[in-house]
UniProtKB/TrEMBL annotation:
Pfam families per the UniProt record, alphabetical: DNA_photolyase, FAD_binding_7
Protein name: Deoxyribodipyrimidine photo-lyase
Transmembrane segments: none
Gene name of this polypeptide: phr
Domain of life, source organism: Bacteria
Organism of origin: Haloferula sargassicola
Keywords, in A-Z order: Chromophore, FAD, Flavoprotein
Classification via PROSITE patterns: DNA_PHOTOLYASES_1_1 (PS00394), PHR_CRY_ALPHA_BETA (PS51645)
Amino acid sequence: MPSSPPPSIHWFRRDLRISDNPALLQASRSADAVVPVYIPSTWQEHHSWTGPNRQSFLCQSLASLAKNLETLRGRLICRSGDPIRVLEKLVRDTGATAIHFNRDPDPHGQGVEKKLQAACVEWGIECHGFHEHTLHGPTEVLTKSGDPYRVYTPYSNNWLSLPKAEPAGKPGMLNTPADIDSEEVPDLGHWGLPKPAEGILEGGERAAIERLNTAVAERISDYGEKRDIPGTAGTSRLSQDLRFGLLSIRKVFTEVSKALGRARSASSRKSIETYIKELAWREFYMAILHHYPHVLEEEFNPDWRGLPWDEPGDLFEAWKNGLTGFPLVDAGMRQLRETGFMHNRLRMVVAMFLTKDLHLDWRLGESYFMQHLVDGEIASNNGGWQWSAGTGADAAPYFRIQNPWSQSARHDPGGDYIRKWVPELKDVPAKRLHEPPADHRPLAKDYPLPIVDHKKERERTLAIFKKHKAAK
Ligand code: FAD
């Protein structure tokens, strides 16, 4: 046992930053020395729920965190294995008397926290979990009768009316003892994963702060107009930063609120307010997952449980590979494959196409997105998929089926987004990109004909849902 005063442990999870990190701040206030630890998950835990894109962004963010900690005389300790066993050994190695961590919004992470709390009692040390991933926790925004909301608008009205916490600063010096064993900061080899997509954004806190500054200075005042035009840089691109905690939500909200205070025109103010409501969607879906964790297995709306879905086969492969012959759908799927990101409008289009045109189970799409998205967030992803399938909380009603051709004409009229991601179509006039080829000939060499007839599949979907409802 070391003779110096006992350190505190800070367990990094989805909070890979040093600024406004409540648990890290408290750990540094409670002891002269802090042991910051990251515990890379094992492959088994992640199987089918992640892939090289998200893990590569994670590795970059960890490397950047390690450097940032050095500026505070800290050292990132990495130890892989079962989190409880790793922390138990670290407590023994360091003589730490307290563990601090920020709570995880996902059920799996929450299960580990419960085990840790029980283990800390056994080890005779303090255990401090902090709520920090959202502005308002899931039990803070409830109906008058104390129930969780199931509909977004009343939830967001309540959410907007609540006072919001301000960001806190950085911790003082961490003084991590020099003699603690650590593995290297993990790279993709840790999980044995293949090469990630090339167009992934840069990880780390500094890059995330730059994105926030750009979003506030250049994007949110026009957000209302541009957010639905996938061919422009009209959205904030902060989702992966919030997913990995490179930015605190308090920092984002505060900067956006300052911009709202400065906005001169009514349209800028409206845009920024629309943006803030998107942050509320994120928290709405986290609250849904918290109160109804079964959504990860089944439909939120019991009316739609047991719907008959087709077997995935060639149509699913065509969807994944961006070879459906629907240019907008293919552009979205290729953007995802090449960058680990897909514009929100496209996420809705391709999700509705999978479930309503190809009649394939939303869980297939949900899992595929989780494997490829850098911002893969269980709650938002499940919420988005169940919304599109018509099965979720406050979802699109089953009969409101988006037409991928008119979506294309409305949101990418000049075809810029399509041509960027489907280069085979670079010489095709815009008008032809937004309708099935009248001559039944492919739009370009090596580009397929539409794999289904939207009108027919729409009728089939309506019949399936109606029959299912009638049988309930
Ligand atoms: P902006 O438009 O700039 O929005 C700002 C922030 O608000 C986002 O960063 C995000 O944190 C939040 N937000 C915006 N829209 C939504 C929404 N509909 N639901 C929840 N939060 C929202 N978002 C994820 O973060 N991870 C996912 O895994 C995810 N999967 C999705 C799957 C489907 C089928 C659908 C329809 C949507 C999904 N979304 C997901 C929501 C949304 O598409 C992304 O948050 C958004 O595209 C990220 O880009 P941005 O940061 O530029 O967003």
